[in-house]
Amino acid sequence: MIDISGWIYSIFGPYGGWGILLCVFLIFFIDAVIFPTLPELFFMFGFFYQPTLEFGITLLLIASVGEVLGVTILYLIIKKIGVPEKIRRIFNKYIDFLVVSDERIFLVNRFAPMIPFSGAFISLVDRWSYKKCMAYIVLGCYIKYGLILVLAAFFYISFDPAVAQNLSLILIVAVIALSFIASFLKKKRTGVDT
């Protein structure tokens, strides 16, 4: 089995905490702009590097900055290049099928992923406010990753570091699995395919 955390540490670890923060920033940025990267996993690997609440809070801030920057860049690219009106109508129709069809979908999206490439959706859905979308994206980031951070910190306070890491990884796998299940059930209930 590949030791992902060892691989990450071998690339970014020599630069200390700043290297790990850069890694988390890049993962969240890439996740927002290009393709899904399982940011929960990398967020936790970053926390493993220095499992303190202070470093975790810094990770949380860096993750939100990476995501905001990634979403904003994709938003601006789509706004600049434009898309055919037919595609815009498809995006708007897709949003209308969802249970929540306004900017709050980004809070739901944090736990039941329904909207890939958020920046593209924000630029193409006519009635959404960029500022409101970003507020919900950041709020969702702080809620989800803040909760993960608090639980991981609790594990480190309560258990041996090796046990704490294993429990934290189980937590992340559970979060990812529950997100996929919630997304699947929501898609099935609304009859929407992404």
Structural summary, described in words:
Helices cover 78% and strands 0% of the residues. With 194 residues, the protein is mainly α. The longest helix is centred in the C-terminal third of the chain and has 30 residues, at 161-190. It contains nine helices and no strands. The chain has one domain. α1 packs across α2 (16-33) and α3 crosses α8 (130-158).
Could you tell me the mean pLDDT?
86
Number of strand elements: 0
Q: Give the overall shape, derived from the CA principal axes.
A: globular
The oligomerization state is single chain
Poorly predicted regions are: none
Order of helices and strands: HHHHHHHHH
Largest sheet properties: none
What's the topology here?
Elements lengths: L3 H9 L3 H18 L5 H11 L3 H29 L3 H13 L7 H5 L8 H7 L5 H29 L2 H30 L4
Helix pairs in contact: 1-2, 2-3, 2-4, 3-8, 3-9, 4-7, 4-8, 8-9
Quick recap:
The protein is mainly α. It has helices at residues 4-12, 16-33, 39-49, 53-81, 85-97, 105-109, 118-124, 130-158, 161-190.
Fill in the keyword field for this structure.
194 residues, 9 helices, mainly alpha
